[in-house]
Amino acid sequence: MKQRTIAEPYRIKMIEPIKMTTREYREAKIREAGYNTFLLKSEDVYIDLLTDSGASAMSDWQWSGMFLGDEAYAGARNFFHLEKAVQEIYGFKHIVPTHQGRAAEHITSQIRIQRGQYVPMNMYFTTTREHAERAGGIFYDCIVDEAHDPASAHPFKGNVDLNKLQRLVDEKGANAIAYLSIAPCVNMAGGQPFSMANLREVAAWAKRYNLPIIFDATRAVENAYFIQQREEGYARKPVRAILREMMGYGEGCTMSSKKDNLVNIGGFLATNNEAFFVKAKEMVVVFEGLHTYGGLAGRDMEAIARGIYEMVDDAYIASRVRQVEYLGKRLQDAGIPIVIPIGGHAVFLDAKRFLPHIPQEQFPAQALAAALYVDSGVRAMERGIVSAGRDHTTGEHHKPKLELVRLTIPRRVYTNLHMDVVAESCQALYEEREKIKGLEIVYEPETLRFFQARFQEIGG
Ligand code: F0G
What we know:
By secondary structure, this protein is α/β, with parallel strands linked by helices. About 40% of the residues lie in helices and about 10% in strands. It is built from 16 helices and 14 strands. The chain has helices at about 25-30, 60-65, 75-90, 100-110, 125-135, 160-170, 195-210, 220-230, 240-245, 275-285, 300-310, 315-335, 350-355, 365-375, 385-390, 415-430; strands spanning about 45-50, 95-100, 120, 140, 180, 215, 250-255, 265-270, 345-350, 380, 380-385, 405-410, 440-445, 455. The strands form five sheets. It has a five-stranded mixed beta sheet, with helices on both faces. About 50% of the residues are buried. It binds ligand F0G. Ligand F0G binds near residues 101, 102, 127 and 218.
């Protein structure tokens, strides 16, 4: 039987108007923004698929919780609600709130990495890698090769390649490794999940060498959903149980609550390691705030706590991931090259195949994201050579195999008609793709350059 439609398990009771603009207007705005979609004003954007981070719509239950914020400096009741939610849903004992995910990464990296130690990751995320490197760590990619191939249909492209881990231990010894940093639904690979079977093997391997797993749990619920849908033995398990099992293989996690947790700001680190927790509490007061608020208002912690319970609702997570799938399938039907399988939070256009006439040093994904904005006011994000940055020692561009434009779907915000508009715009660009020109850099910050770099059209 054909798969039945799943509609949103909620209805809309408040709306936010968005501005419609003309092509001429958008041409001027993208030039002013140096062809960098991060530098556009939000009010000039029609459908904002820059990121799924902090862009979720909160529920009436979350909003009503915002009025129950206890804004005491110390020991606010909302902290204890958050602590309980993390203990119940993620299963970790201790929690340190932070203003967002990268703050938890900063604290974790500084405490857990000794200069010169390796940090194996299943691919990388920009801030996670940056914080590991700032702490003197060396990034080591241990993801399966399929993850670097946008055309591989492997159902679990977020899997760890155990041979790569073994090679590192054989060459450098287990003491040269700080911890394994494992991310569910790997963002830079296209939102690709790992399987529970793979995680189980990784955990068993890590135990042999006494190496802890610290998850970047940012999109763990979406990964749990894919396990439910794709992995044998999980079809009848609720995502809530799958998430608990998954987290059970780790010593702790860093978390950007701005994704799975359905809030606009916040994060935390959570751990079962008492000694790490004590050090993290010491550090959070220096960089974030007291250990019972970590840079967040009481009301923000309440919204996170409630979002944590809402995110594990099976009907919600199915409709969320299937909306992403809806957009992806429309693009596939139009013959547009995208990363397969379709990810959990985003559809990734393959800019190398979309714009084969633009060499990677001329930033094809950056150019494609700019062209998409001009065509329809849809804002996307480059995830390719610009995001990968430069080698700190040689100064050369890192040249990632993946040169992608990310169409990231915020949670509970847009309808499938919005997705249709996006798909039609991509199709219009694809039909006239040879008109899109390459770019050159006119300004480049030293770190995380993709946020603020400025470009101009070559020969434009
Ligand atoms: N880890 C992953 C996998 C992420 O995707 C992000 C943020 C972070 C950590 C950092 O969390 O933003 O709360 O400090 N990703 C956003 C994105 C920015 O658009 O993908 P943060």
